[in-house]
C-alpha cells in the first residue's frame, strides 16, 4: 500500500479506458501498448489502484545500463571502471488528473526503487528520459541527477532512493 493506493502488475482486469493524465502519448500507451510490451518482455507495467479500483497512476520498468562516462567525475570516481553500470529504467510514469497533487508520482518512483532493491540482479541506479523541462524538474525534486551529455536523461542512485524510502518508513 502506498499513500492510500495499492501498486500491482498491470492486468487485463484493470480498466484503462478512463485513465487521463493530460499527456496523450502516455494515455494512449497505457490503453493500447503497455500490455503488448509486457507480453514481449520489453518492460513491466505497474499500476497504482485506488479503493474503487480505478487506475490512479502507472509506471513502466525495464533493465537498462548507465554509461560511466555520463556521470560527473566526482560520482564516477567512487565506482568500478566498468564502461556500463546496471540500472533500472522507468520508461514511462504518469498520474491520472484526478489524483495529481497527492504525491503519487514520488510514491511510484519509490516503488520502482524498492522493486530494484528486491531483485536478484545488481542495480546501481534508476534512469529516466524526461519528456520536457517540467518532467526534469519533477525528477530533480525527487533527487534525480542529470547525465553529463544528455540533460533530459536523469538518474537516481539506488542507494539514495533506498535512504529516502527508509526515512519514509518503507521497505
Characterise the protein shown here.
This protein is of the alpha+beta class and 171 residues long. The chain has helices at 24-39, 73-77, 104-118, 133-141, 158-167, and strands spanning 6-9, 44-49, 55-67, 84-95, 125-129, 145-146, 153-157. It has one domain (6-167): Gcn5-related N-acetyltransferase (GNAT) (Aminopeptidase, 3-Layer(aba) Sandwich). Strand 4, helix 3 and strand 5 form a beta-alpha-beta unit. The protein starts with 5 loop residues before the first strand and ends with a helix.
Question: Brief overview, please?
Answer:
The protein has 171 residues and is of the alpha+beta class.
Q: Kindly report the spatial arrangement of strands forming the biggest sheet.
A: 1-2-3-4-5-7-6
Content of β-strand: 25-35%
Categorize the overall geometry: globular
CATH H-level homologous superfamily name:
Gcn5-related N-acetyltransferase (GNAT)
- Please identify, by name, the CATH architecture: 3-Layer(aba) Sandwich
Average of the residue pLDDT scores: 92
**What is Rg?**
16 Å
- Report the span from N to C terminus: 11 Å
Amino acid at each position: 500500500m502506498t499513500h492510500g493506493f495499492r501498486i500491482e502488475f498491470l492486468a487485463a482486469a484493470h480498466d484503462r479506458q478512463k485513465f487521463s493524465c493530460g499527456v496523450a502519448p502516455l494515455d494512449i500507451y497505457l490503453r493500447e501498448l503497455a500490455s503488448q510490451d509486457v507480453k514481449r518482455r520489453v518492460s513491466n507495467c505497474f499500476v497504482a489502484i485506488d479503493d474503487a479500483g480505478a487506475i490512479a497512476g502507472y509506471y513502466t520498468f525495464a533493465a537498462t545500463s548507465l554509461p560511466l562516462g555520463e556521470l560527473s567525475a566526482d560520482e564516477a570516481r567512487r565506482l568500478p571502471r566498468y564502461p556500463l553500470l546496471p540500472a533500472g529504467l522507468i520508461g514511462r510514469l504518469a498520474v491520472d488528473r484526478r489524483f495529481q497533487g497527492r504525491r503519487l508520482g514520488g510514491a511510484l518512483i519509490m516503488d520502482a526503487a524498492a522493486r530494484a532493491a528486491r531483485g536478484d540482479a545488481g542495480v546501481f541506479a534508476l534512469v529516466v528520459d524526461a519528456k520536457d523541462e517540467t518532467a526534469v524538474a519533477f525528477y530533480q525534486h525527487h533527487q534525480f541527477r542529470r547525465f553529463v551529455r544528455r540533460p533530459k536523461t536523469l538518474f537516481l542512485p539506488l542507494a539514495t532512493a533506498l535512504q529516502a524510502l527508509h526515512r519514509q518508513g518503507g521497505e
